[in-house]
Amino acid sequence: MTLLSAFLVIIGLSLFEIVSSVDNAIINAEVLSTMGQRFRRFFLTWGIIIAVFAVRGLLPFIIVYTTIPSLGPIGAITSTFNNDPKIAATIKEAAGLPLALGGTFLIFLFFNWLFLEPKSYGLRGERFFHAQGGWFYTVVSIILAFLVYYAFNYSQPVALGFVLGSTIFFIVHGFRQYAEKMETSLATSHKSDLSKFLYLEVIDASFSIDGVIGAFAFTFSVPLIFFGNSLGAIVLRQMTISNIERVKKYKYLKNGAMYSILFLGSVMVLESLGFEIPNEITPILTILIIGYFFMKSKNELRRQTLRLQ
Asked: How far is CA 243 from CA 22, 110, 237, in A?
């Protein structure tokens, strides 16, 4: 991997981490507004250490090591920077399962947003799909059946990856639905700041799964995933404290995140089935997608400001 490729991967990972975690930041801000200054500072120091090292550092390593155990613990960290063709062949041979798992998870996440979640309509067709919410389960079931059927003719581990990806999606989705209900009660309750801090850390770990899984569409390099996702997490944590209301005004950022998720999930599925995708394509298109919806949000904010004048 060249320096330019590594730089593009880190930038793409950081942007993806920021925009895909905006909902997490809003939940954090709502709960933090009910906490004292001491625990707000604690959230920015020890909280970020937990979020970065325990989740965005450890989880990618666990995924790589458990799905490609032949690399060993050191190889799971250094493999991408090793020019040994045997290691490259090992990664290529064993990467199908984690890519299939991650791709299914992300594609399901996109369709859940498209059919079921409230949103600002950024593209034509979004309103129509949102009105057909009951079709979500039919659509993802058909997608899963097609992927598994196709994968059985190609690789059984890849087929297993598709099934595991759907299973993990519904587990995480159920947890998040419960967390959203808990947010309101926590924001208005008299529970201790320590309880709220622990709750925020658990929620952060849940939301970070999207960023960690999506990162494997960019690279299998644990260090690059760590640096890119951690940089995005730190920036988002600062925005949560200082400027979350302004972030909420950029109404189409979530749209950009979700279309990026669809793109990344599709790339992972294709790669799990043996298609070759150039390394530079993923970060470049992710940056372009997010940039488009950022500018769309900015222009809409400018029009709203002019109407109020």
From this structure: 12, 27, 10
Least confident of 132-136, 175-179, 213-217: 175-179
The sign one gets for the Cα dihedral 234, 257, 114, 99 is negative
In sequence order, which residues have a C-beta less than 8 Å from that of residue 146 and are 6 or more positions away? none
Element (H, E) at 191: none
| pTM to 2 decimal places | 0.84
Task: Name the token pair of 4.
Answer: 């330019």
The dihedrals phi and psi of 34, each to the nearest 5 degrees, come to: -100, 5
47 CB-near residues (< 8 Å, 6+ apart): 197, 200, 201, 204, 237
Q: Which residue ranges make up each domain of the chain?
A: 3-308
Cα distances (Å, whole numbers) of residue 302 to 83, 254, 289, 293: 50, 18, 20, 14
For residue 262 the two structure tokens come to 């669809």
Listed in sequence order, the residues at least 6 apart from 211 whose beta carbon sits closer than 8 Å to its beta carbon are 13, 16, 17, 20, 21, 56, 229, 232, 233
- pLDDT of 86 > 90? The answer is no
Residues ≥6 apart with Cβ < 8 Å to 46 = none
pLDDT digits (tens, 9 = 90+) for 143-189: 999 999 999 888 999 999 999 999 999 988 887 777 666 665 665 55
List helix spans (H) across the chain: 3-20, 22-32, 37-49, 58-67, 72-78, 85-94, 96-116, 126-131, 136-152, 156-188, 193-215, 222-242, 244-249, 253-272, 281-308
